[in-house]
Amino acid sequence: MNAPLTDDLLNQLQGQPLADIGSQLGLSPSQTSNAVAAALPLLMGALGRNASQPQGADALFGALQRDHTGLDMGSVLGSVLGGGGQGGSMLGHIFGARQQGAAQGLGAVTGLGSNQASGLLQMLAPLVMAYLAKQMFSGGGNAASQQGASPQMLGDILGQERQGIAQQGGIGGGLMGAVLDRDGDGDTDFSDLIGLAGSVLGGGRR
What we know:
Blueprint (H helix, E strand, L loop, with lengths): L3 H9 L3 H10 L3 H23 L4 H13 L4 H9 L5 H9 L3 H12 L3 H24 L5 H5 L3 H18 L1 H11 L10 H14 L2
Helix pairs in contact: 1-3, 2-3, 3-7, 3-8, 3-10, 3-11, 4-10, 5-8, 6-8, 7-8, 7-11, 10-11, 11-12
């Protein structure tokens, strides 16, 4: 099993969108690509976790329908780059008490540090929400738009996505597990992931 939504969104961000995100954060192209590739599974996995909770899928479905339907990805990115998009408040809903740990973990495994990692997550969160809304409501040829979107369908889709991310492994899957599946004591150890990240990022620079 793969993670088709995460992979598709990452593909859509290739080129100028990634260049613009990297420029905004002061990152090199390789830093940006690696960081976004680690951040997207974390965001998607967190949404999948939320949708599996009681009333979680209903709440997320309502938010997508109310606030994110019909938004063009390019317009959302433009708003985000201009300081809009409410990414900070979205992260609070997406990660809850794990928000700080998410930024710390992403910063640790990518070498960005928690402040830049938090900025990246704030930029990506509105893009992820707009992307999911398009998948659910905009007739993109996917199962949801063909069969009629519902909270249960959203929960099922995100649950499969989360499982796919976990099975893919790598930095994205490992980071998702470390951040979302910990016991909340604030003592998450990212050392194993940092070693993995070093080998992957080092390989990417050869």
